[in-house]
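Predict structure. Chain length: 196.
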Amino acid sequence: MCNDYRLMVDVASIVEDFADRNIKIRFGEGAPNIEAREDIKITDVAPIIRTIEGVRGEGDMMQRRWSWPGPNKRPVYNFRSEGREFSSNRCLIVADGFYEFTDPIDPKKKRKDKWLFTKKDEPIFCIAGIWRDTPEVGEAFTMLTMEPGPDIAPYHDRQIVVLDRSVWADWLDPSVSAKSLIKALPPSTLQVEQVG
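Prediction complete.
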């Protein structure tokens, strides 16, 4: 599952992209200083956009840790979406790419092959997430997962939930059913290239 993703876009570009979707971004904790990163890994701090209680068409951008400790102390960085409604603590995880790893095509290669997935013709996309406040690490987020869509299936038996732009505002509105928003993207929506 996804344990590495990318964000090379600045805050102003993210705000502009959300404005194009008629979603106003607030900065309840001040505008975060987002550095361009090829690799955002588990336990790193990264930007998310959270629901503002009782307000539709707006979101609060902040930086939080990716993953919280599970009951076995291993990080919860992915969370199954099947059969769940997520009627609170939703967030959008902003990215411009994510990685999956497969056994190497070249048998002499020691490391796994690394594949970068990006969304065609879109500078950023959003991954469906939830956040939680924990005694161990404070507030942290995790990515929701689902059965793989057609672009991911050749690489992995699960995938993160990449939301279509048309439902970003709906994901931030807990009155909209999460189950109605979690679905595979049409074939050839994601581009894939080997990067390692």
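Summary: The two ends are 17 Å apart (CA to CA).
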